[in-house]
Amino acid sequence: xxxxxxxxxxxxxxxxxxxxxxxxxxxxxxxxxxxxxxxxxxxxxxxxxxxxxxxxxxxxxxxxxxxxxxxxxxxxxxxxxxxxxxxxxxxxxxxxxxxxxxxxxxxxxxxxxxxxxxxxxxxxxxxxxxxxxxxxxxxxxxxxxxxxxxxxxxxxxxxx
Length: 160
What we know:
- By secondary structure, the chain is an alpha/beta fold.
- The protein contains 4 helices and 6 strands; from the N terminus they run ααβββαββαβ.
């Protein structure tokens, strides 16, 4: 019995890859088709030399206040505010919108422009490795060093 089932493994593996790609493409098509009827707009991204967006919102968060983003004149932006103020969601929204634009999907925004990036490098959340003697601060410094070392001039680096 095992040999019979094992014989179908390569075919089933190939079928799963085809079905997963079809699932992604049909989801893109559904988003594009219904982008005008959604309560929150989705738009086709435009590739330019900077990242700008109007009424950007996180695709997984419902009933959120859309934000604008303009990274045309700055290479570095420091975002401050109170805890639970939405900074992490805002940062994730920019990264996710840029990624979605690069894979060919519509973006959850009224208008979105992005530059071509070679990578989206993120660090969100705090962690430590107490068993190894690495504090949260040291962990953040190690991760930041690794991010800076691997980033290029065309990378989008998001640190929370």
